[in-house]
Amino acid sequence: MNPRVHRLPDDILARLASGGGGAEAARQLVAAERSKHRLLVLGVVRLAGSHPAVGRAYDLLAEVEKHAPRAVESVIAHPAVGAWASHVIRSRETADFSGSVQLGALAAVAAIRACRPVRVEVPAPDGRIMLPSLGEIVIPGKADLVDLHLHADGTVEVGGRRVNVHDDEGQFWRPLRRIGVGGFSLWVDDLDPFRWSPDNVPDDRLSTAELDIWREYLQVSWQVLKARHWTLADETAEIVSVLTPITGPEYRMNSATARDRFGAIGMSTPHEWRWLAYTFAHEVQHAKLGAVLDILELLEPDDGGYYAPWRPDPRPLAGLLQGVYAHVGVAGFWRRERAHDTDQQAHVEFAHWRQAAYEATGTLLDSGRLTAPGERFVTAMRSTLADWMAESVPRTALAAADERAAAHREAWLARNT
């Protein structure tokens, strides 16, 4: 369970700073984030102190890792595990470590994947046992802790019931579901209580009809990414492992990432394949930068509020940096889409977002709050955008983009001055 030190080689950091990175850069970021999850899990164990159930769960996890390290790696890397561990550690301010017993469920998943017959204690609030990255067992009643008896064939005995975690959904077993195409598949996590902020998740699981929509649009968007946006496709395949349904505004779509849920993208049900492809372009950038910031300090602290050409409110520099990096990815997506657009939407989007991101890099460079690595990082982004600013765009599309930018700034000034 020992994490390791991670540093980004100069060439990898330079590729990331230019807005891309590719598969190798993505793999290095993934490795760093998995070490971060290990540190968080170790932090939970240390905070729990002498709690016997936590100690036994950790011993089991360590024992499984000796014989099946990938089984442990897969569950620790699950995005909701990072959110759970972060939550428990933040709870130290109230000395509430009750959530630490969820470590037993992590150990159970690792043992199941390693085909090891063992017994382990897990929490069952509200009569449900969440096995991160696998699914949920429903039992009669509720209990702080219950005994799981795991068998080598994947069956689990608990509360007088026996379920097989490899089965489809049944009365007492609700598995996470997968969607995918061409060797690329993702978990759809609509069960784990730590999958996203409770205020932003739907009340129920995705219906079969909605899941079919997600599956259909993923198939089309992934084919497009592989054909037209291969660097983005490579990064997405390395980084993204989970899609989490979240609520969206009426008649619109919503997407997000979170630093403590690396590998997950939260999104509302897509209405078209291109929005889903664009969402990967946007959110993978956020995930990459979040991982970079876990390794490197790019900014000094600030409490300022700056204009961001994509937000209605003033943003601190940390938020502005995230937005710039995301919109470098957005501009790059529309830049390639221009060759396949039947109208001028891609030209308008490219012109608008290259200008917005270029303007915001100037704000960052003029702030005086960038560290030396941050200065190099933002300068490299600006260099990419400067090259794109020199590319030709149809006059009507450029005029539409300029009009859109002017309207945003006018509305922002009216709201915030």
Characterize the structure shown:
The protein contains 13 helices and twelve strands. With 417 residues, the chain is α+β, with helices and mostly antiparallel strands. Among the domains are: 30-174, no CATH class; 297-417, no CATH class. The N and C termini lie far apart (52 Å).
Give the SSE map:
Blueprint: H1 10-17, H2 22-48, H3 52-67, H4 69-76, H5 79-90, H6 103-113, E1 119-124, E2 128-131, E3 135-138, E4 143-150, E5 155-158, E6 161-164, E7 173-175, E8 177-181, E9 184-188, H7 208-228, H8 230-239, E10 242-245, E11 255-256, E12 264-267, H9 273-295, H10 317-337, H11 345-366, H12 372-389, H13 395-416
Parallel strand pairs: 9-10, 10-12
Antiparallel strand pairs: 1-4, 2-3, 3-7, 4-5, 5-6, 8-9, 11-12
Extended strand count: 12
What's the main sheet like?
5 strands, mixed
Strand order of the largest sheet: 8-9-10-12-11
Order of helices and strands: HHHHHHEEEEEEEEEHHEEEHHHHH
Poorly predicted regions = none
What is the CA-CA span between the terminal residues?
Answer: 52 Å
What count of helical segments does DSSP give?
A: 13
Backbone structural class: alpha+beta
Shape: globular
Helix content: 40-55%
Share in β-strands: 5-15%
Radius of gyration (CA) equals: 23 Å
Mean pLDDT: 94
InterPro entries: AKG_HExxH
Protein name: HEXXH motif domain-containing protein
In summary, what is this structure?
This protein has 13 helices and 12 strands.
